[in-house]
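Entry:
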Amino acid sequence: MRQTSAEPADGQANGDVALAALCRSALIDEAEAVRAFAERMGPEMVAAVRLIHESTGPLIVAGIGKSGHVAGKIASTFRSLGKAAIFLHPGEASHGDLGLVGADCVLLILSNSGETTELSDLLHYARVHGNPIVAVTALESSTLARAAQVTIAHGKVAEVDPNGLAPTTSTTLSLAIGDALAVGVTQLLGTQPEDFRRYHPGGKLGTMLLTVGDLMARGDALPLVAPGDSMAETVVTMTEKALGVAIVVEGGALCGIITDGDMRRHADRLWTSKAGEIATRGPVTVRPEMLATEALRLMTERKITSFVVTGADGRLEGLLHMHDVLRAGVVL
């Protein structure tokens, strides 16, 4: 609709400023709640990390309502970092899903009030079967806190919802505590980037953690020729394997590599030469454990399209071609 005066626009501008201030205040207040808890955090965090790490069964993470949504994310984070974890809905637990709770499981239970009725069957089951509980709740005096072996009591916090009712600050704080527990457990587990990639084979993050060994050609796919092979035989091998190069080996040892450029440089004697006479000696090699992103960076810098891959003993293991790197979605 066409504006007929400056007043509506000014009013909206003032409203936008107020809304921006409200949103900024919400972010600051939630961040302050996390910071304040971090400063007063006691030994219970480390106790919880060690209890979860030492358990041999999957971590059972439970909560209801908004705490349930947070619990699901925390369980997912633990799985990402190498600790088996399952989200258990307390309502479903009362109708058969308690079978998920093995004798070797620790329960991580979230409830701001610590008095959630739906948790009663789960707490009773844990007490009867001796499953340790880590509670994340506001007050140490709550029913949940009293039932737990380790209680992380973050205190009552003011929700940033203008009405002070919707779970906002409290759920952010619970989520941050869950993340901190997961970080502590993964430190004790010694999770490495290659483990993380194994749990995240898809997506951009997965491609960033691919290694040369994941993408290289190997075995029968390699265009292998001997130093004494004629260049006519070598060209046939290069054509069959379709990697644009030939690898010259003798007795399993790498002797050199032949590229299109090598053949052009020796065009005047190409068909009367042997593979060993045309090959570039001492080609650039990489190790299979190198990240594919790093290999792509080196290819770009050196203006080459493939690397011979060798092991720690210098023996041939494979060939990495730029096309395979790009096909996998690896980018710089």
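The two ends are 47 Å apart (CA to CA).
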